């Protein structure tokens, strides 16, 4: 963990992940799959998501946001903390092509920089694994490219062009990015696994150093100051002369 100049502890990404996992166990943090099924509870969550998207994505036309969020072909994953929708992802699943297109992804301003965006994306990947989705595609603007890169997206699309061309909407000024979903990875525990791997590596290094103390050889000056192999080259030492 880190600390600021006044001694305030700055949570690390791993600390946030532990906190999110604890909040999920306690029921304070939930990730709810919601679509326009006509239920009042679903519509309320979708409207909350629409408001977050409209505020956090000011360049996106509000009418377009409403149309996609409420579209029955789109699904949303809402991040709900203590009963309040604090963020979400709206996407469209293309089952036959085994990929999903992310239309919107945002977290409310007061809940940003708390790791909700990462947890949200990891929850979506786990949901996609259960749904048989192997890839995620999205058009990211310049401000979102950094976020998507951290979530495992890349600009190089590995899917065959005919698999996705014509299925997703092209956005002017956006960069198409892809994320391959690995079914062997538990995305909700990936940071914890990495931490255990680091501990194991450190333990092995410490054990090796304890058995084999470091030996520092003394330095032996070379004769004439010429490094091996230099004499076989055309290099000639520069001689400087100064006349007063």
From TrEMBL:
One GO location term (cellular component): histone acetyltransferase complex
Gene3D superfamilies, A to Z: 3.40.630.30
Signal peptide: none
UniProt-listed PROSITE patterns: GNAT
The N-acetyltransferase domain, residue ranges: 36-182
Cross-referenced InterPro entries: Acyl_CoA_acyltransferase (IPR016181), GCN5 (IPR037800), GNAT_dom (IPR000182)
Top-level taxon: Eukaryota
GO biological process, one term: positive regulation of transcription by RNA polymerase II
GO molecular function annotations of the record: histone H3 acetyltransferase activity
Keyword terms: Nucleus
PANTHER family membership: GH11602P (PTHR45750), HISTONE ACETYLTRANSFERASE (PTHR45750:SF3)
Designated name of the protein: N-acetyltransferase domain-containing protein
Source species: Strombidinopsis acuminata
């Amino acid at each position: 963990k880190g600390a600021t100049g006044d001694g305030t502890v700055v949570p690390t990404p791993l600390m946030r992940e532990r906190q999110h996992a604890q909040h999920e166990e306690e029921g304070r943090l939930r990730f709810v799959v919601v679509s326009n099924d006509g239920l009042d509870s679903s519509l309320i969550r979708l409207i909350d998501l629409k408001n977050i998207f409209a505020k956090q994505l000011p360049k996106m036309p509000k009418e377009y946001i409403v149309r996609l969020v409420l579209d029955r072909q789109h699904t949303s994953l809402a991040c709900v903390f203590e009963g309040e929708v604090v963020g979400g992802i709206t996407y469209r699943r293309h089952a036959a092509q085994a990929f999903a297109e992310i239309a919107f992804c945002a977290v409310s301003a007061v809940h940003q920089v708390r790791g909700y965006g990462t947890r949200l994306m990891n929850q979506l990947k786990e949901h996609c694994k259960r749904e048989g989705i192997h890839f995620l595609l999205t058009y990211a603007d310049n401000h979102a490219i950094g976020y998507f890169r951290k979530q495992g997206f890349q600009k190089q699309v590995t899917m065959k062009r005919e698999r996705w061309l014509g299925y997703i909407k092209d956005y002017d000024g956006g960069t198409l990015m892809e994320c391959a979903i690995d079914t062997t990875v538990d995305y909700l525990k990936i940071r914890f696994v990495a931490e255990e791997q680091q501990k194991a590596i450190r333990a092995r290094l410490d054990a090796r150093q304890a058995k084999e103390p470091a030996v520092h050889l003394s330095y032996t000056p070379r004769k004439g100051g010429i490094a091996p192999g230099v004499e076989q080259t055309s290099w000639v030492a520069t001689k400087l002369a100064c006349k007063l």
